[in-house]
Design brief:
single chain; mainly beta; Immunoglobulin-like; Jelly Rolls; 3 domains; 5-stranded antiparallel β-sheet; 2 helices; about 5% helix; elongated
């Protein structure tokens, strides 16, 4: 059973009585508990408890995202389907999938998800890939400030991973843009390696959260140092199984570390985020996001 909020809530009609007269006039009355439905039912109003018996609509509705798909080609678009970009999530409702859209026509697809998703990302922050059997993929970019990788507890999309991206050597890695390619970042973050992100921020930024998602960690954990526009923040990476430094394809115990950032850490325009480890620990990358 869904938990029914105490306040506020809206009553929904259980039924409608329609009276149709010979002269064509029709009268209707909605049977809405507890206003009139239980008063005319055989149970009587004494047995009605709005908190437990009422059909209610929560004042705060689930997050909703509507995608409008238009076929601008000359052939019917076959089997269009929606796929999340930044993580593997199955906690959302999808109104339609595997659509066939004739030329010149449009279809609306509605997605709904919990207001507090388990991965912490909204539908807009997740980003979407629209796959069609006979047309190129279409991408809806995540609305995050910065993101790299897909949160799936694996390293395959990073340099040196099982996805086929070549290994990158060197102690300093520079990445530019709000959504840099994971194939440009070595899957192993170890002592002595510095990763620098340069990314733009539009509008007036406020407080934010930097999240580091790891696929595996050294048995002793690691001390992470993050420097954003000259301000330094630290975090402890928990201990891991210590397997993926040698065998990146071995599943391990992934972890997520969050670093709260004050409102004055980000600035409008160009920003620089530098990550390094302050001890001899290491971790392998799963994903990073800044929201």
């Amino acid at each position: 059973m869904h938990e029914i909020p105490a306040e506020p809530h809206f009553f929904i009609a259980n039924a409608t009585v329609r009276l149709q007269y010979a002269d064509g006039v029709e009268e209707t009355i909605d049977l809405v508990p507890p206003l009139n439905f239980w008063a005319i039912s055989p149970f009587g109003p004494a047995d009605y408890n709005p908190a437990s018996d009422g059909f209610t609509l929560a004042a705060t509705l689930p997050e909703t995202l509507t995608l409008r798909l238009k076929n601008t080609g000359a052939m019917t678009a076959l089997f269009s389907s929606m796929h999340p970009l930044l993580n593997y999530r199955n906690d959302f409702y999808l109104s339609d999938n595997h659509l066939s859209i004739p030329p010149g026509e449009t279809r609306d697809v509605t997605l709904r998800a919990p207001l507090q998703p388990k991965d912490g990302l909204t539908l807009g922050q997740t980003g979407w890939r629209i796959e069609t059997w006979n047309a190129p993929d279409v991408f809806i970019e995540p609305t995050l400030l910065l993101a790299i990788g897909r949160q799936d507890r694996m390293t395959r999309e990073f340099a040196g991973g099982a996805g086929g991206a070549p290994t990158i050597n060197g102690t300093k890695v520079r990445l530019a843009g709000r959504l840099p390619a994971a194939s440009s970042l070595p899957l192993l973050m170890e002592s002595g390696r510095v990763v620098e992100f340069e990314f733009p921020v539009t509008g007036t930024p406020g407080a934010a959260v930097l999240r580091i998602h790891t696929a595996d960690q050294s048995p002793a954990g690691a001390n992470l140092r993050a420097t954003l526009n000259g301000q330094t923040f630290t975090a402890e990476i928990p201990a891991g199984l210590g397997l993926q430094k040698i065998d990146p394809q071995h599943l391990a115990k992934s972890k997520t570390v969050e670093i709260p950032l004050p409102a004055n850490a980000l600035r409008q325009g160009d920003n620089t985020l530098t990550l390094e480890l302050a001890n001899d620990g290491w971790f392998t990358w799963d994903a990073l996001d800044l929201m």
